[in-house]
Every structure is written in structure tokens, then in C-alpha cells.
Amino acid sequence: MSKQQRPIEKLLIANRGEIACRIARTCRELGIATVAVFSDADADNPHVRACDEAVRIGPAPAAESYLKIDAVLAAAARAGADAVHPGFGFLAENAAFARAVIDAGLTWIGPSPEAMEALGSKVRARAIAQDAGVPVLQGSNDATPEAAAAIGYPLLIKASAGGGGKGMRVVREPAGFEEAAAASRREALAAFGDDTLFIERFVERPRHVEVQILGDTHGTVAHLFERDCSIQRRHQKIVEESPAPGLSDATRQALFDAAVKLGEAVGYVGAGTVEFLVEGDPVEGERFYFLEVNARLQVEHPVTEQITGLDLVACQIAVAEGGRAPLQIKRRGAAIEVRIYAEDADAGWLPQTGRIALWAPPTLPGIRVESGVETGGEVSVHYDPMLAKIIATGRDRGEARRRLCRALEQLRALGLTTNRAHLLSILRHPAFVAGDVHTGFLEEHGVSAPSLDDGQRGALARVAACVHELSRPRAYAAPTVPKGWRSSRFRDAELVVAGEAVRWRVAGDGWVIGIGDVSHAVSLVSRDGAALTLEIDGHRRTLTVVDAGDRWHVGAGDFSATLERDPPFPLPEEEAVAGGCVAPMTGTVRQITVAVGDAVAAGDALVVLEAMKMENTLRAVEAGRVAEVRVSEGQVVDAGAVLVVLEAAEDA
Hints:
By secondary structure, the chain is an alpha+beta fold. The protein has five domains: 10-109, 3-Layer(aba) Sandwich (Rossmann fold), CATH 3.40.50; 138-201, ATP-grasp fold, A domain (Dna Ligase, domain 1, 2-Layer Sandwich), CATH 3.30.1490.20; 207-445, 2-Layer Sandwich (D-amino Acid Aminotransferase, Chain A, domain 1), CATH 3.30.470.20; 457-564, Glycoprotein, Type 4 Pilin, CATH 3.30.700.30; 581-647, CATH 2.40.50.100. It contains 17 helices and 42 strands. A nine-stranded antiparallel sheet has the order 26-27-28-29-30-31-32-33-34, with helices on one face. Helix 5 (95-103) runs antiparallel to helix 6 (113-120) and helix 13 runs antiparallel to helix 14. Residues 475-481, 486-491 and 568-576 have low confidence and may be disordered.
């Protein structure tokens, strides 16, 4: 917070994507002009159009542009902005940036640089929590095998700076400590510019509960209730809710008191989140431990807004202008948020890149969508793969959960693999319905999305693609036969979709469509753009089909699929690298752990690939000897690129 407390007239948003769009919306409501910043890669992104003005701050690599303090301050000066909001990520928790904004005579929307320095290091924050009487886990600032042995296994290696699960590894036995620590250091250095680590006892099946706080310059620190963020993958949250289910009132109040006490200890100003682990249960007794403080607005802040009626961005601005934090806020109802990611959950939650063929968010009662993407937009390797947040509010948790399920069913995010179906599976799982959540939820329950081969999904998708071809306007000859189809000896037409022949013949006002040995009576009830309402064997369904030339993207209630249009001529087969190593995504080679001639066993690390600021260790699937290493460290590779080739070796 700057010393000059004055009304803000024009605010520069030092961020991109959905948070920039969300901040711009509040500013419009408050009558504050906004300035966006953008890299070359983001010149046409929605956040640029959401603001009144926009200033280019740099070329690709795009993510680095938003980290250039001088460029951001120059943009503020050029546009005549008198305040800066950092959003979350990038420079949001950078004390040097906050100090530079204040020194430039601008209003800083956030905690003081001194508070950020104190809390930005998890090591320092642990010490502050201990001094304030807040419980902490057994740990050590010395991330060495000797310190680890003193704590005992399993333990958690954590990066002192930043958040988002980056630089974090669970180690269950001494043999894996040094490799995990090295990976954590590399990841922390790449994400935060700081490779400082610490270690602490790992708690099995804990709850992850956080408390939203808001402080002002008059010495008040208020809590705005808690959020449960227990369901995570790769130590990153994907489901958040309030109230936290199954938490005793005594523990809830103790968490509030601890969070406020910690905020007061550092003179916290603005919005922040104090995070805790909770173990045990109300019957046998609950214990909680301090984790960290996120000295910024959280990704999941809409959950708190929905249950309090507050606009936290407006609160941040009011505090920065010298206003007071709101007190005596009442909680109303329940809210649940899910994060929509471009990722392949069935392949270890690997991030996905590419073009969004269709983005159509749901519009339903009690549903709020925060996104910064659109149809035709590109999801690149430079940024976190989160596409949007969907927040459902209800009179109670059950109503919020049902509404959220319906919203996910109606969401159309086609062209990329997303975690939508997995989120639906989580929300419908009996353990989640019962409120039995913890950080190992996904590992314990093995939640997965329904396969295209389950039930009638595959047939439904192929029928939809077929009707799309039959019913779309055609600008070529032979209007009764779509392009790419051929006449069969049964005088039907057929098209090979994802390796399976789909046959059809006209029947009255519709068609009989055959897939394998099963035929379906199909008619087109209506067509609205990409949305097709079909009647299939008397059952009406609405599906979405986007034609991408060599494939169709199909979306329905509980699944989405990409179906390849088989080419008329065979394509060259991809090179086989059995036992070797192929890039599962576009990324940067950070480390090569083998050399030509090395013998490797199944499971040995071959290459460390970084994508979207997260490291992925690629391992040998079988024993062999390294025949070729086709890449070098620092090289950017495309998905599908062959990185390492193994050959059979009797002595391997």
C-alpha cells in the first residue's frame, strides 16, 4: 500500500487471463479506468479487450514479459495510471515490484513490501507463526538427508518461495531424497528465481483448510471465513468450497483466531490467505498446523465472495484508498468452485497445448464463470493451463454441488483435452457427497472419467459426427453424399470415423445409421450452430459438433471426444521407440540423465521435461541400453518428438 492514500482514477492490471478480466470488471463497476499489459503472444486475448487501454510490454517468450518490472512501470507511466493491481501469479508476491510501484508514486493494491518479504518466504513465515503461537509441523530449514533422517519419512520437500505446488515433492524413503530435492530446486528456481528449500513432516490424509483475511491501514485484520481446498492433484487445488464440510465449530473458530493473529503480527494490509493442514476428526479430536500465507488475492477468492456477498477486489481497492476492512460479515449458503484445466488427467495430469475449437460456458442459476479464454484462442506452453473457474452457490452444500454438476454438463470446451469429466466424477463420488475429503482423495478413490467406450458414448459421438456431415450445407457436387464418403456394395454410404466404419441410408425424414452390427434410427430435430438436437431410437439428446477438417470435436453431457476422420490414403507410421522416450507435450528439456551406451532399468529417469513451469520426469518403460539421445538441455521440443532411443541389451 502506498503512503499516498487517494482516490484511484486509472488502474494498471499487471497480469493477464481470467484474473485481469475479473479485476477489469470490478473497476468498471467502480468507475475506474483500466490499462492492460500484453506480450506479443497475447495481443488478441480477451483481457486486452476487457480494459480501456492496453500497452505492449514485450515479445515472446510470453511469460517473461509479465515479469519485467521496468516494462510494467513504463507502461503505467505511458498510460498515466495512478495505481497497479498485480492479480495473482507473476509479480503478485514480489516485494521488489511492490516497492518499485510505491517509489514511482503509484498506489499499490496489496500488502506492504515488508509484509510480503516476511511472508513470501515459507521459512520466515514458519518462524513468525511459531512466535505468534500458531502450531507448525515438525520441520527443518536444512533440506539435507541428515535433517530428513531426523524428521523421519514420509516427508515433504517444499520451495520456500512461491506456491501452486511448484518445487514440492513427497519423499517416502531415504533413497529418493536427493533426486527429489534436486528436482524441487530446479523447479523452484525456474518458477520463482529462488531455489531455497525446507522440509517438514508429511501428514497422510489431512484436510487443507485456508482462512481468507483482509487487513486495513487502521490496524484491523478481519477474517472472512474458511475454504476447504483438500482435493488436489500434483499439490495444486482443483476443488474449493465453503463452509469446509465436517469441521467442528471449535476448530473452525481456532483457525479464524490463528489467521487473524498471524495477520496482526506482520501488520497485514489487503487481501491474503492463511493456509493450514487439519488432521483428525471432530470425534477423536482435530489438530491443525500452519502451512503458509499467500500474500495476494487467491485463485479461489470467488468462493468467499459468493458466501459473503463481498467483492474482494473492490475491498482491496477501498483499503488501498484508506478505507476500513468490513467487519461483522455473515456467511450465507454454500459455494463450491472447480478449476477447468487443459490437461490429460488419465496421463498423469499432463498439461495440454493447442487451439480451443469451441468455448461455450454454461449460463444457469447460481453459476458464476470466470475465464480469460475464447473460441479460437491458443493455450500455449508459456502459461498455467487453467482455462476457467466455475463457481456454484446454493442454499446448502447439496444444492451447490448439484448446480455445479449441471454446469459442468453444459460446459462446452472442445479442441483440447480437459479435466471436465474428472471433475464431474469427483463431485458425484459418494465420498465427496458425504463431505469426506482430504488431500489424498484422488489417490485413494482412483477417480477417473468415463471412457468413450463405456456404454453408448462412442456410438453417440459417431452418430453425431455422421449427422453433422449429412445435415451441413454443402458447396460441392453430389449433394446426397458428403465429401470423404464412399459408396459401399450395399448401396449405403460409409465414413470411417476413428477406425470404425459408420454406414447410413435415408429412412423417411431421417437416417438409419449403422455402427458395427448395431443400427440406429436417427433424425435431426434442430440445429443451432454447432449444437445438434438428435432423436436416436426415440431418445432426444443435444450434442455439440465442431468440424476441424481432419477430425470432429464432439461434446455431450458427461463426456467430450475428438474423433479422427480417417484419411483416404494411409499416412506414414510414427517412429516406434519401444522402451525409449517420447515427449508427451511441448516443453523444454531441463535435464538429460543418461548418455549413449548407458544401461538403464525399467523406471530409470531419462529426461526431465519442463512445461508450464512444472517438471515431468520421463522414465524408461523397459530395460535396455541408450542407443541415441536426440535432444540437448535447454532445447524446446514438440509433443511426440523422440527424445531418447533405447535398444535391447542382454546385460541391461
